[in-house]
Amino acid sequence: MKIGVLTGGGDAPGLNAAIRGVTRRALSYGYEVVGIRRGWAGLLEKDVMKLDRDAVSGILPKGGTILGTSRTNPFANEDDKNKLLRNIEELGLDAIVAIGGDDTQGVAAKLSDLGYKVVGIPKTIDNDLSGTDRTFGFDTAVAIATEAIDRIHTTAESHQRTIVVEVMGRHAGWIALYSGLAGGADVILLPEEPFDIDEVCSMVKKRYEQGRKFAIVVVAEGAVPKGIEDFFTRSSQKDAFGHERLGGIGEWLEKEIEKRTGVETRSVVLGHVQRGGSPTAYDRILATRFGIAAADLIKNGDFGKMVSLQGEKIVAVPLKEAVKANRVVPEDMRWLAKVFSP
Ligand code: F6P
Fold first, then answer.
1. Which CATH number fits domain 2-137+279-322: 3.40.50.670, 3.40.50.450, 1.10.645.10, 1.10.10.10?
2. β-strand pairing of 305-310 with 2-7
3. What is the share, in percent, of the chain residues with pLDDT greater than 70?
């Protein structure tokens, strides 16, 4: 049995732990494992590397992915699709492990529909994949954002400023909600519900009137103000899966808050800092468990599935389950974002 492993989409802390988990378990079954470089792009170019014990030694605590990643969509046109299918045969891959978010799992699901033996492993710092309670990378991103908010607190307080912290989260506000709560933010704005800028400004003013002469606003990059209700974007260019590059809501809030309240305001974008560096112990363990479970699915001939966390258990769900709508913060949890608002 020859297994190809790839990592696709935005990187997330824990990818190397997952690569190590699946490789070590697969090697223990006597399988041959190859790493496909830069996601689906590596399959289009037959760019692979051997994954043996040495190759995965020492990678557990490392951020990023030793295989590299890309947002390549091999089903974007007929030529690429044919090349992809041909290369899978020519490389002699009996099974593919696709580690990624909804776009990567979408490609995996299509391949599986075409009869290829594919297994998925969910990852994304956004934690927005259907079919699993948690993706690895999220815990690390929340820890990084929380630490940043702690640091921003002290400078905001010293200068009596309001500071807006823009965190990642395209459709789902999990990072904003969790880091906002953990960091004690005064205002938390999620993509799930358009916010009222007048309401945000009155909360900031109220806080200063209460004598706490600084405020922290945490906003997800995908949050939108009522009346505009469209993403703030950095560029109109879209990636191969049709996603725009988001950004700008933090800066917009900075200007609006300062203009409307007269309070000195700044904004910071945490951006890719949230995706870099060493994974937390939680993410290492989750990614390792996912990697082991993926190799076990192959061993059991259980293809077309994605490994998933449900409660404390690792189970397998159909790949199609994973590529359903984004798993956003549910309505009955969104109120949490407002509990500590002034
Ligand atoms: O998909 C995860 C994510 O971190 C999103 O929150 C964000 O919008 C996007 O990746 C940014 O990706 P990049 O700048 O790497 O293309």
1. 3.40.50.450
2. unpaired
3. 100
Report whether residue 125 contacts ligand 1, using a CB cutoff of 6 Å: yes
Distance CA 7, CA 18 (A): 10
pTM for this entry:
0.96
- Is the CB of 126 within 6 Å of ligand 1? yes
Q: Who's near 50: CB < 8 A, 6+ residues apart?
A: 33, 34, 35
How many CB atoms lie under 10 A from the CB of residue 180?
30
Q: Which CATH superfamily is domain 141-276 in?
A: Phosphofructokinase domain (3.40.50.460)
Residue having the nearest C-alpha atom to atom 9 of ligand 1? 10
Q: Tell me the pLDDT tens digit for each residue of 190-208.
A: 999 999 999 999 999 999 9
Looking at the DSSP bridge assignments, the partners of residue 265 are: 162
User: CB-based contacts of 229: which residues, under 8 Å, 6+ apart?
Assistant: 194
Name the β-bridge partners of 34.
Answer: 4, 50
